[in-house]
Amino acid sequence: MEQLSDRIKAMEESATIAMAQKARELKSKGVDVISLSLGEPDFKTPKHICEAAKDAIDEGKYFSYSPVPGYLDLRQAIADKLERENKLSYTPEQIVVSTGAKQSIANTFMCLLNAGDEVIVYAPYWVSYAEIIKLAEGVPVFINGDIENNFKATSDQLKEAITSKTKAVIFSSPCNPTGAVFNREELSAMAEVLADHPEIIVVADEIYEHINFSGEHVSIASMPGMMERTVTVNGFSKGYAMTGWRLGYIAAPLPIAKACGKIQGQFTSGTNGIAQRAAIAALNGDMAPTQEMAKAYLRRRALVLEKLQEVPGIKTYEPNGAFYIFPDVSEYFGKSDGETTINNAGDLCMYILNTAHVSLVTGEAFGAPKCVRLSYAASDEQLEEAISRIKEALSKLK
Predict the structure, then answer these.
(1) What pLDDT does residue 167 have?
(2) What is the pTM of this model?
(3) Strand stretches in the chain, DSSP E
């Protein structure tokens, strides 16, 4: 359509959402599809969080527009959480609550970037990073980790990528899509490189912090000299199984927080008031459900890795967090079942969807064209069945 802007024409559709839609279309036709494409916990939101939302509805005080950056007591609860769990001291004025961590990231880059500014992106990366940066007229510059190093780009790569145009760096830890976790030494090395470039802002996406099997979650903002130049992004979707509640937040230097509040005031205003009351209960309440979910993911990781090792041609590694496996499937490129030829990871995902009725996401969308992303946020039975189907489908490729 000619009236559409160049901006929207240039934007790529989210690959994870697109694959989920294809899976839903097959399901609507009666096909038994096992969906391993979305990064969505299969657990219900813990009961005490739901009860807090019900209480808020019954109180009848939270039906009007909420403050743009979020209710003060929620922002205080977030500040308390960051002090308690991350050793980070923020005031509520430095917290902005948004409609999901995705909006938090979009707000941040819309406030930071001018046309042509470069953002160093640790790859593989979450699908929306590059598109958000480009929407803000920035230029993503990718530094790539490989499977032999659990997909973690090095501090030397960071140093080499910095130019006079570098405005920011973004990474996630634990990482979507790889599950990689940057340890204290790796983050310290990153901070040492950035110490020579005080003008560069770090955007640290920590949405998966509670699904961490490494024994320690470290925030880069806790490193010496980093807090005043780091935007810490987090939310409630993954650790509290609250994807549909749509709540994320940033903790940032005050000028950035104020700027994000300013732009949010023009785009969405404050996020859902009832959900915010539930978020306070999540932060201040019992963490046992979150811990039980993390234990279940750890068990499922072991299950999936064991089963994938039985599938010829798939190269795996052991991720330390999140709930994804990101195997190298390039051995299947160029193979065919006689009807379909696999030229790339996208072809393989479509072949598996149509043949095995299992939805995965191509690694091309995450900056790793040899890989596919498999989410193990599903039941043990579904995971076993899915990998059995995948193994059978792949055996037909010669």
Answers:
(1) 98
(2) 0.94
(3) 34-35, 95-98, 118-123, 139-144, 166-172, 201-205, 230-235, 248-251, 324-325, 358-359, 361-362, 372-375
